[in-house]
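Regression test case RT-17, inverse folding.

Input:
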C-alpha cells in the first residue's frame, strides 16, 4: 500500500509539472499572438481569442480531473477516457491554431499526451497529426536543396528527443505501478501467511494439550492395568490368608507364595511400563501368545480351564493394535480372575476382514448392574476405570468394544480394531 501511494504521488507530481508547462505555453502563445496582431487586441478579436484560450485551459483542468476520477488516483485502465480527453483538447488546440499560427506550440502538448494513449509502435499513429501540424506551421519540408533536408532532419531529431523525454517517464510510471501492485499483493500474501501461522500455532498448541490429555489417560489406564490389578489381587489373597492361618496353615502358606508371585509379576509389569515410556517400541511377544500366557496363568491361580483359538499372524499387526489388544485382553482376564468365579474361559485372537478381533468368553457369574455410557454400553462405576478404559482404548484406534453379560450366564467381550487404524481418533 505504501508503494502504491508513492506511485500515486509521483503521478500527481508529474501532472502538476506538465500542467505548469502547458499553461506557460498557452500564456506565451497568447502573448505572442496578441502582440503581433492588432485586431486581437480589439474587442471582437480579443473576445474570440480569450474565449478559445479559456476553453482550452478549462478543459485541460477538467479533463484531467475527469480522467483520474473522484479518488484522484491514476487509473491505467481508463483508456477510453484518455482518448476522449485528448480528442477534445486537440479540437481546442485546432480552434486556437485557426485563430493564429502562433498557437501551433500547443501541438507539443497534444504530441506529448498522444504518447500515453497507446504503447509503441501504435502510439506513432496518435502522434503523427500533431507532428505534421508542427512541421506545417514551421514550414519545414524537405525540398531539392541540401539545407532543406538538413533542416528537416534536425526537426525529426527534435521530435525524437522530445519523444524520448516524454515516453521514458511513462515507461517508468508503468513499471512503478506494476511494482506497487506487486508490493500490495506481497503485503496481502504476507498478512494471509501471518494469519495462517497464527492459526497453525493455535492448532499446534491445541494438539499439544490434547496429546497431554491422551497421555494422562493412557498412564491412568496403564497404572490401573498393572499396579491396580496386582494390589487388588494381593489384597484379596492376603485377606484369604488371614482367614486360613488358624484353620489351614498349609493353604495359607500357599496363598502367601501366590501373593508374592502376583507382586513380583506386578513389579515386572511396572518395570516394563517404565521401559515403554523410555522406548515406545520394545520387543515383546505377539499379542496372541502374550494373552494366552496371561490367561493360562490366571486359570492356574483361579482354577478355570482356558480354551485357546489363536491366529499365527498377529506378529505382523501394527504395534499400536497389538498393544491395545494386550491391555484390553489383560484387563478382561484380570476381571474374570477376580470377579467371575468361572470354570471355563475361551480366548480367541484372529484377523477378519482387515481387522483384528479379540473375543473373551467366560461362564461365570456375569456383570452386576453397571452404569452405561452415551452409546448404551456398560461402563465402569465411579472411581473405577477398567471397563471404561477398555472401550476408550478401542475407540482411540477407531475400533469397537462390545460387552454383553447376564446374571449367572457369563460375560462376552468382543473387540474389533481396524488393522489400518494407525492414527488415534479424536475421542
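Golden output:
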Amino acid at each position: 500500500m505504501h508503494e502504491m501511494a508513492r506511485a500515486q504521488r509521483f503521478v500527481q507530481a508529474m501532472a502538476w509539472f506538465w500542467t505548469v508547462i502547458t499553461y506557460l505555453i498557452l500564456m506565451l502563445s497568447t502573448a505572442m499572438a496578441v502582440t503581433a496582431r492588432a485586431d486581437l487586441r480589439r474587442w471582437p478579436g480579443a473576445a474570440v481569442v480569450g474565449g478559445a484560450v479559456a476553453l482550452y485551459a478549462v478543459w485541460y483542468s477538467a479533463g484531467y480531473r475527469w480522467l483520474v476520477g473522484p479518488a484522484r488516483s491514476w487509473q491505467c485502465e481508463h483508456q477510453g477516457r484518455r482518448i476522449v480527453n485528448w480528442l477534445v483538447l486537440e479540437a481546442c488546440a485546432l480552434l486556437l491554431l485557426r485563430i493564429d499560427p502562433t498557437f501551433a506550440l500547443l501541438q507539443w502538448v497534444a504530441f506529448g499526451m498522444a504518447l500515453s494513449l497507446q504503447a509503441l509502435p501504435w502510439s506513432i499513429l496518435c502522434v503523427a497529426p500533431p507532428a505534421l501540424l508542427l512541421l506545417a506551421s514551421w514550414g519545414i519540408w524537405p525540398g531539392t536543396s541540401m539545407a532543406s533536408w538538413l533542416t528537416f532532419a534536425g526537426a525529426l531529431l527534435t521530435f525524437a528527443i522530445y519523444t524520448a523525454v516524454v515516453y521514458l517517464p511513462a515507461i517508468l510510471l508503468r513499471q512503478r505501478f506494476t511494482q506497487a501492485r506487486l508490493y500490495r499483493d506481497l503485503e496481502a500474501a504476507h498478512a494471509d501467511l501471518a494469519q495462517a501461522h497464527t492459526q497453525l500455532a493455535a492448532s499446534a498448541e491445541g494438539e499439544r494439550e490434547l496429546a497431554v490429555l491422551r497421555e494422562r489417560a493412557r498412564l491412568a489406564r496403564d497404572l490401573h492395568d498393572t499396579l491396580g490389578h496386582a494390589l487388588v489381587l494381593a489384597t484379596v489373597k492376603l485377606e484369604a490368608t488371614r482367614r486360613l492361618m488358624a484353620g489351614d496353615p498349609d493353604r495359607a502358606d500357599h496363598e502367601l507364595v501366590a501373593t508374592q508371585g502376583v507382586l513380583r509379576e506386578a513389579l515386572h509389569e511396572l518395570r516394563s511400563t517404565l521401559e515403554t515410556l523410555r522406548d515406545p517400541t520394545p520387543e515383546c511377544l505377539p499379542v496372541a501368545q502374550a494373552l494366552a500366557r496371561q490367561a493360562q496363568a490366571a486359570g492356574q491361580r483361579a482354577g478355570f480351564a482356558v480354551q485357546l483359538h489363536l491366529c499365527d499372524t498377529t506378529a505382523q499387526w501394527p504395534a499400536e493394535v497389538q498393544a491395545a489388544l494386550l491391555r484390553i485382553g489383560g484387563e478382561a482376564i484380570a476381571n474374570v480372575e477376580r470377579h467371575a468365579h468361572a470354570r471355563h474361559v475361551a480366548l480367541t485372537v484372529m484377523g477378519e476382514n482387515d481387522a483384528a478381533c479379540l473375543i473373551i468368553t467366560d461362564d461365570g457369574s456375569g456383570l452386576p448392574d453397571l452404569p452405561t455410557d452415551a452409546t448404551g454400553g456398560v461402563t465402569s462405576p465411579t472411581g473405577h476405570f477398567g471397563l471404561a478404559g477398555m472401550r476408550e482404548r478401542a475407540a482411540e484406534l477407531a475400533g469397537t468394544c462390545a460387552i454383553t453379560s447376564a446374571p449367572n450366564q457369563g460375560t462376552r467381550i468382543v473387540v474389533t480394531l481396524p488393522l489400518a487404524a494407525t492414527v488415534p481418533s479424536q475421542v
